[in-house]
Amino acid sequence: MWYSCHCRFGAFPSTALDDKMISFKSQTPAFRTRQSLYCAIVSAICLFAAGCGSAKYEERLGATAKMFNHQHELDEHLQDWYEDEMSIVRIRPPRGFGNIPEPKPVEADDGTMEYPPLDGRQPPFLNEELPGMVAAWKSEVTAEDMSGTAYLYILSDLAMSGDEELGFRDAVLDVLDRDLDTDLSGSSFNQMAYPQDSSQGYVRPVVYEEETVVPEGLVNELPTEFTIYMHETDAAQLCLIFVMPEKANSAQAMLDRLRFSLETLEVVGGSDSSGDGESGEKRGGGGF
After folding, report:
1. Is residue 277 part of a domain?
2. Domain that holds residue 16
């Protein structure tokens, strides 16, 4: 029949013939099967891509929620940022701790400026001064129905007088060992990072070497716990000392606040180490 049509009307143009052939093939079961399979594959790819995008979005949304929740915890447990006058460190101290002011120079009779002989930040329970004092805080507590005091000290090699014969770490531990009758110099410090939850990848951990001792001697007639945190960067060496009556009523709450505070430590580097004040490692980092 096609031949007779060809003879009477002439051959179909090639495009018309191709369209008729495609139309004919599209009616075959094999073609419809392949077409359905192709549509199914495309649909699956689209759904998979949409699913991946949705999963990524949910992951980012969850990470953002964790970050804001963590920031809320920091604000709940910590004070605003503190930076010492020498620009050595920045930290958010625990709530409930009052800053012990740095001694200010006063004018002497001859017109020169002199610092007072006693630094009120130095521990009242030690016979010697701690080297490299940068900042100090204290909080009144109750332990065993007695009033006591908790302290937080920050020391740094950048604040040392330069007269010390020992290096910073040895100088600090040497004073504590003599006055507290301990052996911190011979102790094996444990390495710890704050925050301790490794899943909080949005927070860069600050690494310390730490050790806790309870000397036999009493502080204000109370058994007292001393925890020493050593931290080091290329810019500075630091030592944080936390002192608390061993059986303080608020011990756990204070320790929780302290752990949050430890993760906020930033080494600025000191006013003499960099003109732009950006030396050191932000958010701590580094370690021994």
Report:
1. no
2. 12-77
Say whether both 151 and 23 belong to one domain: no
Indicate whether 5 belongs to any domain: no
72 within a domain of the structure (yes/no):
yes
Q: Flag whether 119 is in a domain.
A: yes
Task: Report d(CA 82, CA 48) in Å as an integer.
Answer: 50
Distances (CA, A) of 175 to 130, 166, 168, 266, 279: 7, 11, 11, 26, 29
pTM of the model: 0.73
Q: Do 114 and 168 fall into the same domain?
A: yes
Beta strands in the chain (DSSP E): 82-83, 89-91, 98-99, 106-107, 113-114, 133-143, 146-156, 190-194, 206-213, 224-232, 237-245, 266-267
Q: What Rg value do the Cα atoms of the chain yield, rounded?
A: 35
Tens of pLDDT, residue by residue over 196-253, are 876 556 678 999 999 999 999 989 899 999 999 999 999 999 999 999 999 999 999 9
- What is the Cα–Cα distance from 119 to 173, expressed in whole angstroms? 20
Which own/partner contact pairs does 179-188 have at CB distance under 8 Å and 24+ positions apart?
179/126, 179/127, 179/128, 180/126, 180/213, 180/215, 180/217, 180/226, 181/215, 181/216, 181/217, 182/213, 182/215, 182/226, 184/211, 184/213, 184/228, 187/211, 187/213
